[in-house]
Amino acid sequence: LLLQWNLVCEDDWKAPLTTSLFFVGVLIGSFVSGAPPGRFGRKSILFSTMAVQTGFSFLQIFSTSWEMFTVLFLIVGMGQISNYVVAFILGTEILGKSVRIIFSTLGVCIFFAIGYMLLPVFAYFIRDWRMLLLALTVPGLFCIPLWWIIPESPRWLISQGRYKEAEVIIRKAAKINGVPAPAVLFDTAEMQDSKPQQQQKAILLDLFRTRNIATITIMSLLLWFFTSVGYFGLSLSTPNWHGNAYINCFLSAVIEVPAYVIAWLLLRSLPRRYSLSSTLFLGGGVVLLIQLVPADFNVLSVGLVMLGKFGITAAFSMLYVYSVELYPTLVRNMAVGATSTASRLGSIVAPYFVYLGAYDRFLPYILMGSLTVLIGILTLFLPESYGNPLPESFEEMLKVK
User: Fold this and answer.
1) Measured over all CA atoms, what is the biggest interatomic distance in the chain, rounded to whole angstroms?
2) Do 40 and 77 contact (CB within 8 A), yes or no?
3) With contact defined as beta carbons under 8 Å apart, do 285 and 360 qualify?
4) 327 vs 5, 52, 172, 331, 396, CA distance in Å?
5) CA–CA separation, 257 vs 248, rounded Å?
6) Cα distance between residue 222 and residue 239, in whole Å
7) CATH domain 200-400 topology
8) Concatenated DSSP letters of 126-184
């Protein structure tokens, strides 16, 4: 691909820009996926965005220029993050509490890692980039039968006053699980007559309404931004490692599985600040050590990068839970959206950290390691949320310094 469109020498800046523009699409998709489900439903948006990702990935095969490929790649990024977010929401709303925790932590993350592992395997056996894109696009068609298997979210249907449709889904689920359903699930007349409590409206500036809250918000934004830089920087730098690029990419994916398991175990039993800070220290510290490894010790260098990826991946997977626990109900979704946006900005910048390796192969690792250690220290100054009930109001949040 690089040679076909001459993305070398004076045009080598186009390669990282292509990846950055994909993440620009991810950023746009993050905003888009937040609004439509309220009107059109989880299921419709899930399958329509899957169609966007699959359809535009297929169109990329016929790209005649770098510009055409990049524009289509941006649209693929929009579809990819949108169906990921909506699938996450739909799963958490459909599943029961006992299964929901596993689904939202190990389930989603480990299947992401499995898909990540398959990428270098496909790339190893299919060296033509057009055929590789085709092979990666075709599995999207296998999701079509899922339309008749995956139900709409009953919670969303109830919020829209569509009680009969919600009742059909709930009764079917009860039958499959062998659980007897009550004769009357909803008192429709009573539910339609009841008026929701008047809720205070929140705006983005509420995340900065006091010095204390503004400090937490700014620190959280920095935490998400630099953790994202570290994660995507190490993920995208695999071709620059010693040894076989395909094996390195595969190992980079494999190391995520134990990272997700460790993150899940830490979240279950230890304070958030120390869990997050220790994994960031581990990730950043070992990445900084790479510059001290002699040139002949290639295996040790790759091992340190893997250990760094392990630490940063574990930290990244804990951020959603920690952010949810820091903010009150009124602005919780807004806070997660703002911090997630900071993460997308970090992923846009990450390819240029990798690009610095063209000037000095240790420079990307020095920067990523230093910044990761820095935010590991910063995390220790955030409030502790482990064992505390979720704050419901700003008053409860203000009690924590």
Assistant:
1) 76
2) no
3) no
4) 48, 33, 36, 7, 9
5) 15
6) 28
7) Growth Hormone; Chain: A; (1.20.1250)
8) --SHHHHHHHHHGGGGGGGGGGGTSPPPHHHHHHTT-HHHHHHHHHHHHHHHT-PPPS-
Per-residue model confidence as pLDDT tens digits over 71-129:
898 898 888 877 777 787 778 778 776 676 677 777 788 888 888 899 889 989 988 88
Q: Please check whether residue 373 is in contact with residue 277, taking contact to mean a CB–CB distance below 8 angstroms.
A: no
Is the full-model pTM beyond 0.70? yes
Segments making up each domain of the chain, as ranges: 1-150, 200-400
User: Per the structure block, which two tokens stand in for 188?
Assistant: 């429709």
DSSP symbol at 64: -
Tokens of 324: 């949810």
Q: How many CB atoms lie within 10 A of CB 186?
A: 14
Considering only CA atoms, which of 105, 114, 104 is closest in space to residue 261? 105
Other beta carbons within 10 Å of 395: 9
Query: In the numeric block, which tokens belong to residue 156?
Result: 């969303």
Residues with Cβ within 8 Å of residue 173, at least 6 apart in sequence: 151
How many alpha carbons lie under 13 Å from residue 219 in its C-beta half-sphere?
20
Among the residue ranges 41-45, 147-151, 257-261, 283-287, the one predicted with the least confidence is: 41-45
Instruction: State the distance between the two ends of the chain, measured CA to CA, in whole angstroms.
Output: 52
pLDDT in tens, 249-291: 888 889 999 998 898 888 888 888 899 999 999 999 988 888 8
| Token pair listed for 269 | 């039993």
Give yes or no on whether 1-150 and 200-400 have one common fold.
yes
Q: Which fold has domain 1-150?
A: Growth Hormone; Chain: A; (1.20.1250)
